[in-house]
Amino acid sequence: MLVVGASGNIGGSVARALIHAGIPVRAAGTDPAAVARALPGAQSVHLDLLDPTTFAPALQGADGLFLVRPPAIAKVGPTLNALLDAAARAQVGHVVFSSVTGADTNRVVPHHRVETHLAGSSLSWTILRPGFFAQNLADAYRTDIVRDDRIILPSGQGRAAFIDVRDIGDVAALVFADPVTHRGAGYTLTGPQALDFEQVAALLSDELGRRIRYEPTTALRYLRHVHSQGRPWVQAVVQTVLHTGLRRGQAERVDPTLERLLGRSGRTLTQYVHDNRDLWATAS
């Protein structure tokens, strides 16, 4: 199986779940040496979504493709969709695309265009639509937590059913083990409980032994804040739209699909924070 983004949170979790399941993995990235160090049980290959000449060599002989959109890529036509076209030419067995909740109807997010392109292709496919990631605490929110002991978001009192990407990896491995059963399916995946960010801050405070506060803000202020942290404007806009949507309850529903597929409850945010508490340690 060719796993795109194998050095990232989602792709790495998928690669590790596949390796654990005994499924051979070709881990793709722009730095194959770094990928090999991170995933010693996989074959590493060079794949750059901005360089179509790398597509065919990476796909050669692949039984399946796991695809995820890197946040920095907004133009999915010449990148992700072009890779899907190359996968069709290479007759890749099955594609699993990690999209986002609501992308089947939300034309604003880039994932919608990938879903549409995939559905119209000759490929066999399954779409995963996870909600808000527990790993956002170690990515989008980490700098504010470590530097200022705060979570600043335009989410009001909205709640999110945080999903641990390790569970996404387990679902992807399940699909690749039996692709016929899951062909043409779109699965909404969430964690087992919905929390607002006051609760998230309290959870972090309890685990870290210092007070973490939640600071609600406006969409415009958050957009500027995200961009000031070095994220491109397009990425900052998408991130702002997704978090503003929490005010309207877009991510609060706990969906039973993950538990039905895996036969167990998803990992809780409490468990994720406990397992990774060193990520938010301060220099002092």
Task: Please give the structural blueprint.
Blueprint: E1 2-3, H1 9-20, E2 26-29, H2 32-38, E3 43-46, H3 55-59, E4 64-68, H4 77-89, E5 94-98, H5 111-119, E6 125-130, H6 142-148, E7 150-153, E8 159-160, H7 165-177, H8 179-182, E9 186-189, E10 195-196, H9 197-208, E11 213-216, H10 219-228, H11 233-244, H12 257-262, H13 269-275
Parallel strand pairs: 1-2, 1-4, 2-3, 4-5, 5-6, 6-9, 7-11
Antiparallel strand pairs: 8-10
Overall description:
- By secondary structure, the chain is an alpha/beta fold.
- It has a domain at 2-130 and 165-189 and 253-262: NAD(P)-binding Rossmann-like Domain (Rossmann fold, 3-Layer(aba) Sandwich), CATH 3.40.50.
- Helix content is 41%, strand content 15%.
- The protein is built from 13 helices and eleven strands.
- The strands form three sheets. A seven-stranded parallel sheet has the order 3-2-1-4-5-6-9, sandwiched between helices. Strands 7-11 form a two-stranded parallel sheet. Strands 8-10 form a two-stranded antiparallel sheet.
- Helix 1 packs across helix 7, helix 4 runs parallel beside helix 5 (111-119) and helix 9 (197-208) packs parallel to helix 13.
- The longest helix has 13 residues, at 77-89.
- It is globular, with a radius of gyration of 19 Å.
| Overall pLDDT score | 94
| DSSP E strands, number | 11
Largest β-sheet summary: 7 strands, parallel
Strands ordered across the widest β-sheet = 3-2-1-4-5-6-9
Q: What is the highest CATH level, the class of the domain at 2-130 and 165-189 and 253-262?
A: Alpha Beta
Rounded to an integer in angstroms, the radius of gyration calculated over CA atoms is: 19 Å
Count of helical regions: 13
- What is the N-to-C succession of helices and strands? EHEHEHEHEHEHEEHHEEHEHHHH
Low-confidence stretches: none
End-to-end span in angstroms? 43 Å
CATH superfamily of the domain at 2-130 and 165-189 and 253-262: NAD(P)-binding Rossmann-like Domain
User: Would you tell me the structural class of the helices and strands?
Assistant: alpha/beta
What is the CATH topology assignment of the domain at 2-130 and 165-189 and 253-262? Rossmann fold
Shape field? globular
CATH architecture verdict of the domain at 2-130 and 165-189 and 253-262: 3-Layer(aba) Sandwich
